[in-house]
Amino acid sequence: METKRLIIVAVGGQGNLLAAKVLGEAALSAGIPVHMSEIHGMAQRGGVVESALVFGEARSTIISDGEADAVVGFEPLETLRALNRCNRKTTVITNLAPLAPFTVAIGRGTYPDIALIQEKIRAKVGRLVALDAVALARSAGSVLAVNIVLLGALIRAGILPLTAEAVRDTIRHRTKAAFVEANLKAFDLGFNHAAEKAV
After folding, report:
1. Is 148 exposed, middle or buried (0-12, 13-18, 19+ CB in 10 A)?
2. What is this structure's pTM?
């Protein structure tokens, strides 16, 4: 199979690591080789958390600049910061709901315009899928399901060698019983919304 390289970027506490584990376990269950690595940074202080997943035969989990087939950003500014990993064929899936950095929260910085962030991303990549994953997660019954909404959008994009049902099965077995129903709904909302938002 063709090797596919995925970067997931988020702010600490947004569920990046769970999303990566769901994808990794879904791949293993389907007999697809997968290699994963994580950078936690200052996760507990709202810093960046990055996961790299390589599907298929590979000797390393390092995804160099310009090598990502897909980037999933849980926060718009973090998505923009990962733009150097992209190329003209990369698909980027991003949440549009900002999570302001500390400097913005205390009035010592300004958050960039979301439309401008999208414009910069769109100018460099092959495809951008941008959606308000927070609103979709809320409508699924849990604002904590932003990560699962974005997984749905990623699978709908068709880049990875994973089926929607394989990921749903992993969600059923990997997430806590109390959250399974909301997570499955969140996945389906992201999956269905992605087709409408591809630009």
Report:
1. buried
2. 0.91
